[in-house]
Amino acid sequence: MLAAILVTVLWSSSWVLIRIGLDDEALPPLTFAGLRYGLAALVLVGWVARRARLRHQVASLGRRQVGRLALLGVVFYTITQGAQFVAIDRQPAATTSLVLSVTPLVVAAASARTLGERASRRQLVGAGLVALGAWAYFAGSLGATVVGMVAAGVGLAANAASAVMGRHVNRDATTSPVVVTAVSMAIGAGLLVVVGLAVEGMPEVSLRAGLLVAWLALVNTAAAFTLWNHAQRHLTVVESTGINNTMLVQIAFLAWIFLGEPPGVAGIVGILVVTTGVVMTQLPDRAGNPT
């Protein structure tokens, strides 16, 4: 659980850094996303290639396993991340966060049918509070655009699907999380790079933009996604998604500190409701087992 929380802190900081890259450095969204995840994939593939145990695991992957990792890569990296970058570029990041806050509700319904991890009544209430708190936080004018909302909707659907798929791939714990991340990210990021270059072309990357991409790739992507895959081995999909939604709170404070956007009264109420909802999804049941 602590590992998952650390990952969300890194990912929350990414929203501020992405906004800087899009606005100050004028990086096109799809290409920006492709550069971030493409570089991270190269680092992870190099890490796997240097270690015999990891190379053996890759060589031992069956056709079905490779297919699952490829599908996870396309959904989680190509579609989810590409859509989120476009949404952040076309409308306020808060609006995109609002749309994505519904993810726990979608995941709870999907995981019950596909993974047999039926959410308890308390978890469903908690997920509902997370969504309600998000609406309270972002009450008022959200500056939504048609393109931004469509992209955010695509990101929501793909994010929920990838959460279920990631849990399905990782819960048997037979393959190293580094291998899972490296293979899926290499496939998904490779496709994202191709799409970005085809649609937007090669951008001019300044030294500052290069350092920004490097940090996002090495720390907030390569390290963070590997740690996230590790955490998914010990958390149910509803639990991991609930922790992931604490990013709403974290992004709010980071925006206040670094972007000068105080949350206000509605924001504070929303933060409290979101926190309550997340806690409800994490509490053990009466038998002492995670719910």
Summarize the structure.
79% of the residues lie in helices and 0% in strands. It has helices at residues 2-23, 29-49, 52-60, 63-90, 93-100, 103-114, 121-137, 146-170, 177-200, 207-231, 237-244, 247-258, 264-282.
Report on this model:
The protein is mainly alpha-helical. It has 13 helices and no strands. α6 (103-114) runs antiparallel to α11. It is globular, with a radius of gyration of 18 Å.
Number of beta-strand segments: 0
Could you estimate the helical fraction of the residues in percent? over 70%
Number of helices: 13
What is the residue-averaged pLDDT? 82
Q: Give the H and E element order.
A: HHHHHHHHHHHHH
> Which range does the strand content fall in?
under 5%
Shape: globular
The major β-sheet equals: none
Q: What distance lies between the first and last C-alpha atoms, to the nearest angstrom? A: 14 Å
Tell me the radius of gyration. 18 Å
Point out poorly predicted stretches.
286-291
Could you say which structural class the secondary elements and strand pairing correspond to?
mainly alpha
What's the layout of helices and strands?
Blueprint lengths: L1 H22 L5 H21 L2 H9 L2 H28 L2 H8 L2 H12 L6 H17 L8 H25 L6 H24 L6 H25 L5 H8 L2 H12 L5 H19 L9
Helix pairs in contact: 1-10, 1-12, 2-4, 2-9, 2-10, 4-8, 4-9, 5-8, 6-7, 6-8, 6-11, 7-13, 9-10, 11-13
Question: Which key features would you list for this structure?
Answer:
mainly alpha, disordered C terminus
